[in-house]
Specification:
Order of helices and strands: HEEEEHEHEEEEEEHEHH
CATH superfamily: Extracellular Endonuclease, subunit A
Radius of gyration: 19 Å
Structural class: alpha+beta
Helix content: 10-25%
Strand content: 15-25%
Length: about 280
């Protein structure tokens, strides 16, 4: 009898794992949060806990169980996402994480010297209470140096929203890599008794398009791409333009394929562009 139950449990596990492995491919549709591709080939397989795909409806992420934070988060931003909903500030655990996984909560960053830094920001999801609330799930958060979060990063987020208000839509992928950052209380490699990694770098890639349809089909060699890679350091510059780089350099640092859904010839051009400013 015991062996029979064990076999049933193992069979259920492998079925769920197999189903999860089939769910990692993004749907190639307009406005899809992962339309640019799945950078790390994340899946919902329990055999892949450090590259675990989670669809929060308003953004999609690859979650890293052992680091207690996302590897990357991907989302689409257009005028319909920007409304009048107030910032909710309801930081909370993601209770949908698999059983037995550590869940960060609103106290996990207390007295750490690091901000609860959003990946998909609250300001990009003000169309409804549900949309804004989703951004405060703790698996959308990383330990971010306060000056990075409140100044450098906030300025870039506002820049992207202003792009949208001027008739554009943007696709965004944000993530972090490495270990060890400098917050308000100095250098640290982890917080919350070692359960949450403090990243060394925080990066973002933004693809800008005029409002329209057939988004992937409209991306070409002339499409505007913004890539930045910032040190997670409280002494960094407030000007995000000081940290512009190429998509290719972020790929080299992370091992990701950040524009995987695009034709290779388009990728080759866009990934080697460095943003130098402009409207």
């Amino acid at each position: 009898m015991r062996n029979s139950r064990l076999l049933k449990n193992l069979l259920a596990f492998f079925i769920l794992t197999a189903i999860g492995c089939k769910q990692h491919e993004p749907q190639q549709t307009d406005d899809n949060n992962m339309a640019l591709g799945n950078p790390s080939n994340a899946s919902r397989s329990l055999l892949n806990p450090d590259n675990y795909l989670i669809d929060h409806k308003y953004y999609i992420e690859s979650y890293n169980r052992d680091k207690g934070e996302p590897n990357w988060v991907s989302w689409h931003l257009c005028s319909k996402d920007i409304g009048t909903t107030d910032r909710l500030d309801n930081f909370r655990p993601d209770e949908t994480l698999p059983d037995g996984w550590y869940e960060a909560d609103n106290t996990s960053y207390r007295k750490s010297g690091f901000d609860k830094g959003h990946n998909c920001p609250s300001g990009d999801r003000t169309s409804s209470v549900d949309a804004n609330s989703a951004t405060f799930l703790m698996d959308n958060i990383v330990p971010q140096a306060p000056n990075n979060n409140q100044h450098t990063w906030e300025h870039l987020e506002s820049y992207c929203r202003n792009k949208v208000k001027r008739g554009n839509e943007v696709y965004i992928i944000m993530g972090c890599y490495g270990t060890g950052g400098t917050g308000r209380k100095g250098f640290a490699t982890a917080i919350d008794r070692g359960r949450i990694n403090v990243p060394a770098h925080i990066w973002k890639v933004v693809v800008v398009l005029p409002d329209g349809n057939d988004d992937l089909g409209r991306i070409d060699e002339n499409t505007q791409v913004i890539a930045i890679d910032t040190p997670n350091d409280n002494n960094l510059s407030n000007n995000w333009m000081n940290y512009t780089c190429t998509v290719k350099s972020i790929e080299a640092a992370t091992g990701y394929n950040l524009l995987a859904a695009l034709p290779q010839n388009i990728q080759d051009v866009l990934e080697n562009k460095k943003f130098t400013g402009g409207n």
